[in-house]
Amino acid sequence: MSNGTGPKPAIVVSSCLLGVRCNHRGSASPSSKALRLADTFRVLPVCPETVGGLPTPRAAAERREGRVVADDGTDVTDAYARGAAATVELARASGAREAVLKARSPSCGCHQIYAAGRLVDGEGVTAEALRAAGVRVRSEEDL
Fold first, then answer.
1. DSSP three-state, residue 142
2. Cα–Cα distance between 1 and 28 in angstroms, integer?
3. pTM for the complete prediction?
4. How do the domains of the chain map onto residue ranges?
């Protein structure tokens, strides 16, 4: 929390929650609560999937047996891993200790994700990487 005399702490936020049209459908998932984070934090928007090199729009994907596979059968694990690594580096470089990520995403989901065609308890690739790096991860539904 900034006391008005120093810089606001950094927080990583899924770009789609801030209105950026970057999800797999080519649209956004704006969250008024996520937008209000800018009142308290220096918001660092990121879409790990696009940072990892995937286009917008793109086929929906899910985690399967340690991989990430798109609905069209394409293995996109490497792109997800690149995006997760870049997001962890952004958090480290900025000093961000928290992240608010899109719920249920195979990249950003932090409570549940889609796997093998159903919603299961688990984390997306980026949420898992951030948590392993010591970053507190929440979804927009936790705000």
1. helix
2. 28
3. 0.93
4. 10-142
Q: Angle 10-51-43 (CA atoms, 0-180°, nearest 5)?
A: 20
Identify the three-state secondary structure at position 107: coil
- List the 67-70 sheet strands across, edge first: 67-70, 61-64, 112-115, 118-121
Task: Work out the angle between the directed axes of helices 77-94 and 125-132 (0-180°, nearest 10).
Answer: 40
Tokens in use for 17? 């929650």
The DSSP result for 39-86, as a single string, is GTSEEEEE-HHHHTT--SS---EEEETTEEEETTS-B-HHHHHHHHHH
pLDDT digits (tens, 9 = 90+) for 37-76: 999 999 999 999 999 999 999 999 999 988 999 999 999 9
d(CA 125, CA 63): 9
CA angle 126, 75, 93 (to 5 degrees): 25
